[in-house]
């Protein structure tokens, strides 16, 4: 015996309601898209942006709250420093720096006042510096350059010669004085030195 | 007036009185020479001590010779020093410092006998130097005896240039 399906009234109503809701949703989507496209098409975005008071918006932003929520470590982890460094043109950056201007703005006196010379000196390893210097060679070169031996010879010889000459001149004057005295004593006028 | 003054040398190199060294310069030269001789005596003394160490071995001790031996050695050193210098160059160290030169009246260097005799006379009779200011040609007793002259070096050079 053959069984024929019988329309169940509740199921049929449910299917009809579901079909109606689907059709309504599609119509609503189509309607919203159409309306949105029409609104966008009619809006003058430049005019809208020009009306925005950026300062007022900025005043209302709580930067501290944003900063608290930023995970700096996570941001830093995601930054590829090497890639950034590769893209930086150091020569070009250096070329744009005005060294004279920088030097002119540096207060050297202030810098010098802040330097602790004693501390710097205490950290110097003079022994290592001296060990790297060829003091013997340096001294030899300097002595060769100024020819100290010649200066000493010239100076010493000159001083000694002047001293001896002065000594001789004084003794000769003394001789003449003695001779004059004895000539006068002996009433001699000839043969004596002038 | 001395004999030498009565019989002056006829040659052109005879020293004028103003070129002849006076008492002060000669005394200073003699003082320097006595210091040099003292140094030589000390050197001889040390040399004798060193010789004794070499011969007899240590310890090193300075010899203590009798007074007569020290005097004789000192006298011999002075004699040889003066005579040697006057013979070879005409100048002792003192003469060199004071710019003096001892020669014969002709300007020539002294021979060995005359230099030895002059040195001996200087050592035996040093007061002979005091005759210099009294002499017309500024000669000491030794100069008068041996016919020598002590001249300033610049006068010596001038004489050579004139020749």
From TrEMBL, chain A:
It comes from the Bacteria. This is Uncharacterized protein.
Automatic annotation (TrEMBL), chain B:
It is a multi-pass membrane protein. The keyword Transmembrane applies. Its main location: membrane. It comes from the Bacteria. Keywords: Cell membrane, Membrane, Transmembrane, Transmembrane helix. InterPro entries: Pra-immunoreactive (IPR051791), RDD (IPR010432). GO terms for cellular component: plasma membrane. This is RDD family protein. It comes from Streptomyces apricus.
């Amino acid at each position: 015996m053959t069984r024929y399906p019988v329309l169940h009234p509740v199921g049929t109503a449910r299917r009809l309601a579901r079909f109606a809701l689907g059709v309504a949703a599609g119509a609503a989507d189509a309607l919203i898209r159409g309306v949105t496209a029409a609104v966008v098409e009619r809006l003058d975005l430049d005019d809208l942006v020009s009306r925005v008071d950026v300062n007022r918006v900025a005043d209302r932003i709580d930067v501290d709250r944003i900063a608290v929520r930023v995970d700096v470590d996570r941001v830093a982890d995601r930054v590829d420093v090497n890639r950034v460094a590769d893209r930086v043109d150091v020569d070009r950056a250096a070329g744009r720096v005005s060294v004279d201007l920088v030097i002119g703005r540096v207060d050297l006196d202030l810098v010098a006042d802040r330097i602790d010379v004693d501390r710097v000196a205490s950290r110097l390893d003079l022994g290592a510096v001296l060990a790297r210097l060829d003091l013997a060679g340096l001294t030899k070169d300097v002595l060769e350059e100024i020819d100290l031996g010649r200066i000493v010879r010239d100076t010493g010889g000159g001083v000694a010669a002047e001293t001896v000459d002065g000594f001789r001149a004084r003794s000769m004057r003394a001789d003449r004085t003695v001779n004059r005295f004895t000539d006068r004593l002996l009433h001699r006028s000839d043969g004596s030195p002038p | 007036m001395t004999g030498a003054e009565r019989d002056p040398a006829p040659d052109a190199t005879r020293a004028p009185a103003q070129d002849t060294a006076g008492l002060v310069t000669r005394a200073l030269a003699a003082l320097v020479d006595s210091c040099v001789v003292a140094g030589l005596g000390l050197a001889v003394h040390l040399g004798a001590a060193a010789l004794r160490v070499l011969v007899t071995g240590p310890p090193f001790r300075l010899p203590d010779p009798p007074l007569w031996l020290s005097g004789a050695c000192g006298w011999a050193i002075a004699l040889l020093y003066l005579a040697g210098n006057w013979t070879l160059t005409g100048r002792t160290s003192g003469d060199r410092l004071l710019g003096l030169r001892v020669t014969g009246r002709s300007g020539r260097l002294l021979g060995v006998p005359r230099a030895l005799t002059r040195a001996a006379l200087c050592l035996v009779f040093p007061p002979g130097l005091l005759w210099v200011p009294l002499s017309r040609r500024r000669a000491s007793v030794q100069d008068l005896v041996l016919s020598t002259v002590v001249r300033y070096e610049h006068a010596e050079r001038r004489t050579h240039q004139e020749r």
